[in-house]
Design goal:
The protein has about 400 residues and is an alpha/beta fold. About 45% of the residues lie in helices and about 20% in strands. The chain has three domains: about 5-85, Arc Repressor Mutant, subunit A; about 90-205 and about 375-390, 2-Layer Sandwich (Nucleotidyltransferase, domain 5), CATH 3.30.420; about 215-370, 2-Layer Sandwich (Nucleotidyltransferase, domain 5). The chain has a five-stranded mixed sheet with strand order 7-6-5-8-12. It has a five-stranded mixed sheet with strand order 15-14-13-16-17, sandwiched between helices. It has a three-stranded antiparallel sheet with strand order 9-10-11, with no helix packed on it. The radius of gyration is 23 Å and the shape is globular. Bound molecules: zinc ion. Zinc ion (ZN) binds near residues 250, 260, 264, 267 and 269.
C-alpha cells in the first residue's frame, strides 16, 4: 500500500530522520533495485545482524518494504528482498537556460510522470523562483505534488560562501553573482530546494538512472550554447568550477581549425558550440537555420551542410579520444543541442577518434543522449533525491 492510499500525505521529513549509517542502504536499493538482506550486507560490508538492525526502523515506518518471497542465493532459505516504494515520493526537477525553463516531476527512481517546457520570463532571482513555483503547481495538477525540488543551471556555488554563511550561487549567463537562490526558492515553493550546476546534475542523473548506469568511470560532454564536461571516476562525479569548464571549452583540438570569439583557432567551442555551428551554416546558406535542418540537408547532399556535419563530428571524435587517452575512461556520453548535427556524421566521429588513438582496436563507447532538455530537468530531480533522500541534508 502506498502512503497516498493510506491517506497520509508524503513529506520529505521521513527521509531526513534516517540515521547516517542507514543511508548507504537507501542508496544501494535506490540505484540497484530490490535486494535480499544477505546481498545488501555483502555489498555494503555489513554483518547481517547490523543490516537487520539498521533496516528494521525503516521497514516499520514504511520507507522500505519487503517484496515477495525468493530463495536466498547463499543458503537457499526463503527470504523477502527489501525495496523502496519509488512511487510514494515525487520530486521536481528544473533546468533553466538563457531562454527557457524545463520542468519534470519524477518518482524516487527518476521515472518522469509529468513534464513541461516554457520560455524563461523575467530574470531576477525572485521572478525565476515565482516561475519555478508556477511550473511546479502546473505539473502537480497533472501528476502529484513533489516533496522537494532540484533546480539546475549553468553556474556554480559562489566561491566566497563559507561556513555559517548563506549558500549562494553564481550564474554568469543570467548576470547573477552570490544569489541565495536555494533560500529564495524555499521561501517561494515551501518545500526543500537544492540548486546545482546543470552539467554535474546531468552526470549524476545519467550515472544513477541513465546511459551510464552501472558504470564507475565515464565522461560526459555537453555541446550546446556552452561546452560542458563532467568526469566520473571510481563512482564519483568530480566537481568542476566555471573556470575549469571555460578552459575545457577552449582546449585546442586543431590549431588550423575555425576561429572562436576569443580568437583561438580550432578549440572545442569553435567546432561544437551551437553558435559556431549555426553561424557557419548561416554563412554558407545565406540565411539562419536550425540544427535539425543542417542534419537533414546534409543527408540530402547539400555541400555546405555536409561539410559542417563532417567538421563537427570529426572534432567530437578527436575530443572523445583525447578524454579517453588522458583519463582512461572508455565511455563518453554526449548531450546538448549540437548533437542533432554531429549525430549525422558517425563515420567522421570514428575518423576523428582514429586520428588520436594509436591502437584503435578497442573503440571508445560513445553514447548519445536525447538532445531535449527534459533529460537535463530529470538531472535536477535526481539532485533533489540525492540531497534530501540519500544524503539527508
Ligand atoms: Zn576558443
Amino acid at each position: 500500500m502506498t502512503s497516498e492510499q493510506r491517506g497520509d500525505r508524503p513529506s520529505i521529513e521521513a527521509w531526513e530522520a534516517v540515521s547516517p549509517s542507514a543511508r548507504p542502504i537507501i542508496r544501494e536499493l535506490l540505484v540497484t533495485g530490490p535486494r535480499t538482506r544477505t546481498e545488501l550486507a555483502r555489498r555494503l560490508g555489513l554483518s547481517t545482524g547490523s543490516l537487520t538492525r539498521l533496516t528494521k526502523p525503516l521497514v516499520r515506518c514504511g520507507l522500505l518494504v519487503e517484496r515477495g518471497i525468493v530463495h536466498d542465493e547463499t543458503h537457499g532459505h526463503p527470504t523477502r528482498p527489501l525495496d523502496l516504494v519509488a512511487g510514494d515520493y515525487h520530486f521536481l526537477g528544473v533546468k533553466i537556460t538563457a531562454d527557457g525553463m524545463y520542468g519534470v516531476v519524477t518518482d524516487l527512481r527518476a521515472e518522469v510522470v509529468a513534464e513541461h517546457a516554457e520560455p524563461l520570463g523575467a530574470r531576477t532571482p525572485e521572478a525565476v523562483a515565482a516561475q519555478v513555483a508556477a511550473l511546479r503547481d502546473r505539473l502537480a495538477r497533472e501528476s502529484v505534488p513533489p516533496v522537494a525540488a532540484g533546480v539546475t543551471l549553468g553556474g556554480n556555488p559562489s566561491p566566497l560562501g563559507g561556513a555559517g554563511q548563506l549558500a549562494t550561487f553564481d550564474a554568469p549567463f543570467l548576470g547573477w553573482r552570490q544569489v541565495p537562490l536555494e533560500s529564495v526558492l524555499h521561501e517561494t515553493l515551501k518545500i526543500p530546494c537544492v540548486v546545482r550546476n546543470d552539467v554535474a546534475a546531468l552526470a549524476h542523473g545519467q550515472h544513477w538512472f541513465g546511459a551510464a548506469r552501472g558504470l564507475t568511470d565515464f565522461a560526459l560532454v555537453t555541446i550546446g550554447a556552452g561546452i560542458g564536461y563532467a568526469l566520473c571516476l571510481g563512482g564519483r562525479v568530480l566537481e568542476s568550477t566555471e573556470e575549469d569548464l571555460v578552459e575545457f571549452g577552449h582546449h585546442i583540438l586543431d590549431p588550423g581549425g575555425p576561429m572562436c570569439p576569443v580568437g583561438h583557432r580550432g578549440c572545442v567551442g569553435s567546432y561544437l558550440s551551437t553558435e559556431a555551428i549555426l553561424s557557419a551554416a548561416a554563412y554558407g546558406l545565406h540565411r539562419p537555420v536550425q540544427p535539425e535542418e543542417i542534419a537533414r540537408r546534409a543527408g540530402e547532399g547539400n555541400a555546405v551542410c555536409q561539410d559542417i556535419v563532417r567538421q563537427g563530428s570529426w572534432a567530437l571524435g578527436v575530443l572523445a579520444a583525447t578524454i579517453a587517452n588522458l583519463t582512461g575512461v572508455k565511455t563518453v556520453l554526449i548531450a546538448g543541442e549540437s548533437l542533432e548535427v554531429v549525430r549525422a556524421g558517425r563515420r567522421h566521429i570514428a575518423e576523428g577518434m582514429r586520428r588520436r588513438r594509436l591502437h584503435h582496436h578497442r573503440p571508445i563507447d560513445m553514447r548519445m543522449l536525447s538532445s531535449s532538455f527534459s533529460e537535463w530537468a530529470r538531472g535536477g530531480a535526481v539532485e533533489a533525491v540525492r540531497t534530501f533522500v540519500v544524503e539527508g541534508r
